[in-house]
């Protein structure tokens, strides 16, 4: 079956910059896809290309089998929710939701519009708010109206550009859950833009990490988190520790990597890349929660010195300085036997072989 949206080798240039640079992306039916990346990496531009507010300089955009590259936004089966909710302040909640239905490409009867408004408000749990004006709503409620307005016409694709950006953290987390549930109930595809990596991991079927107008990596949240391809991804999504070294020996499927801080194990086929050979230079990344404190003389243990600890109740974040000068972070669960390590204490760090990730150079 054809993808709901297929972005094919699309480039969009603005004076002095390729905001989107040769991007290809398939969005499947019913998928929650998140575009994640730092400010200016091209997320909004890519969304606007899908919506039809921008026309690509190169490449095509398909909706199913249909090439929509030259089709106007309101002729596309897609709706967009922006960070600024852009509700009409002089229209009631019901009229805001009905607005798009009255002017959509489909002609609808008054009864049908009333029904669609009722259903959309029910979906976002705003039944009873029909006659309120936007100014009489909280930020989260206003955002729900904007979402109701976007889903009321029953689009196959909903585009959301940082829709939760203006909300405080608690409300934001509640809305994340609501949006995810709404997407499941509707069974349509969502393309969601954020620069918040936790939000991306928590909500998505597929995370698309962008950098400088290109897709750096895409995959499920756990693929992106557990198997980042590059240092940029490893450091942008979550916290990571990185060390460089060279392969000293290979024993079966495990390589021993000589680093300034000691010998560390690495799967000889780590990260799906080509098999390692003795002498290869490698960059190894390890997530903080995968690391345990260990005796210094054990196998695969590297040495460091405790610098400080951030006690956060459920976990403690340790900062450990390695001999090569790099600062590593170790997350330790407070499971009843919290470690008490004074600054300056020499510690060993160890992790399972499979948890070392080989990054591309
Ligand atoms: N209309 C425009 N004219 C000129 N340059 C633009 C225009 N729109 C975007 N750009 C540039 O294109 C690049 C990508 O912008 P875009 O808005 O897509 O980034 P973004 O990833 O959404 O960033 P943010 O997280 O800050 O919203 C930026 O360098 C931006 O300055
Ligand atoms: Mg943007």
What does this structure look like?
It is a single chain. Strands 6-7-8-3-9-10 form a six-stranded mixed β-sheet, with helices on both faces. Strands 13-12-11-14-20 form a five-stranded antiparallel β-sheet. The chain has helices at about 45-50, 95-105, 110-125, 140-150, 170-185, 195-205, 220-225, 230-235; strands at about 5-15, 15-25, 30-35, 60-65, 65, 80, 155-160, 190-195, 205-210, 215-220, 240-250, 255-260, 260-265, 280-285, 290-295, 300-310, 315-320, 325-335, 345-350, 355-360. It is of the alpha+beta class. The protein has eight helices and 20 strands. Adenosine-5'-triphosphate binds near residues 14 and 41.
Features:
six-stranded mixed beta sheet, 23% helix, 2 domains, 361 residues, binds adenosine-5'-triphosphate, alpha+beta, OB fold (Dihydrolipoamide Acetyltransferase, E2P), five-stranded antiparallel beta sheet, binds magnesium ion
